[in-house]
Amino acid sequence: MPLKETIQNKAKELKPSLIAIRRQIHMNPELSFQEFKTAELVEKHLQNLGLKTTRLANTGVVAVIEGKNPSSKVVGLRADMDALPITEVNDGREYRSQNEGVMHACGHDVHTTSLLGAAEILLAVKDQFEGSVKLVFQPGEEKLPGGASLMIKDGVLDNPKIDVMIGQHVMPQINEGKTGFRPGLYMASTDEIYATVKGKGGHGAMPHFNVDTVLITAQIIVALQSIVSRCANPAIPSVLSFGKVIAQGATNVIPSEVTLEGTFRTLDEAWRTEAHEKMKKMAEGIAESMGGSIEFNIVRGYPFLKNDVSLTERCQLNATEYLGAENVTDLGIWMAAEDFAYYSQEVPSCFYRLGVRNESKGIVHSVHHPSFDADENALENGCGLFAYLALAELGAV
Q1: Domains (range + CATH), the chain
Q2: Using N-to-C axis directions, what is the helix angle for 36-48 and 3-27, rounded to 10°?
Q3: 141 catalytic, yes or no?
Q4: Distances, alpha carbon 160 to alpha carbons 4, 8, 44, 157, in Å
Q5: What tens digit of pLDDT does each residue of 192-249 get?
Q6: Which of 45, 62, 325, 355 could form a disulfide with 178, with the two C-beta atoms 3.0–4.6 Å apart?
């Protein structure tokens, strides 16, 4: 039987057990860098398959599947395990989160389960390929400094040295059964902005005695948008958004401090650094000109994610062979960020999307939404495609 059919049959056979694993993980979500039970589940599953596991970055789990001539080439497959501080909507689903205020709203339960399934498939055919596949289950994708950076620091790319890295992520904009790829620049860098505007609070009816921190903050928010609209090269995608403003005053009370939090994202490192300097200078200038002051801090986050063109084009071609041309789509630039970008800065990498949308089941919500869900039928392609892409890179298909 051709290897492709063997993988497809095994993926179909595994689907019921994978659905059970995914639901177990979904019901017991853990926040970034607190994935202790999830890591134990992953370790136990891999060890039951006969694999030796290693811990990195405290809650990261790594295992290696060796084929013939195991050092000839090593393909890394990555899944993330952490959940988000979101309260899941209680819509009657039997596998709803049991940890109030914590939810797998970004599909990491699907990623982890898919990689566990891929491990079973690869072990079943390990006598049919040369090289090795390194399974990387990482913590903390959702929180700086990013679990990928800590895994790299702890040596995940070495012993054995990973030659290429492949990552998979759910996408509710794509129907279940389909997948998407983009060679080259794909996802943005991400930086966190924290600012405190200081002035002189007082009675709202007597503004001439005060330094109005709320007004200063409003001016800064509006003015900083001009850095994106008028200073950035229009060919370089950039996003500046503020999602948190706290002014603890009242209808007639102007507070002495206002705190401001936001995010800046782009796809060019030189412009990223330049924009940081411009934002800080502009914010300080506006605050000073209006009689106040500002502490303006930018926490540098994940770099931009660049898919290796050659590797990603190969993966897209191989996905077409596995799923059919009608089920493989081209992706546009995505201004969200991913710590998989750290791997892409170190080794040739491919980060692709797994469709999980199913309108007939009401599975339509975006990631990070309290009603997010994934069509569990996607687990069949999730594990099968993971395994097939790895084997294709090793020359087995």
Answers
A1: 3-187+303-393 (3.40.630.10), 191-300 (3.30.70.360)
A2: 150
A3: yes
A4: 26, 28, 22, 7
A5: 999 999 999 999 999 999 999 999 999 999 999 999 999 999 999 999 999 999 999 9
A6: 355
- φ/ψ region of 365 (left if φ > 0, alpha if ψ in -120 to 50, else beta) reads beta
- CA gap 341, 316 in Å, rounded: 19
pLDDT-above-70 percentage for the chain:
100
Q: Is there a catalytic annotation at residue 91?
A: no
**218 SS3 class:** helix
Contact 355, 179 (CB under 8 A): yes
Alpha carbon distance 309, 321 (integer Å): 18
β-bridge partners, 68: 130
| Active-site pick, 82, 191, 339, 375 | 82
Full DSSP string of 92-116: S-TT--SSTT-B--SSHHHHHHHHH
Task: State the amino acid at position 11 in one-letter form.
Answer: A
Identified catalytic residue from 141, 191, 373, 376: 141
| Joined tokens for residue 356 | 């999980």
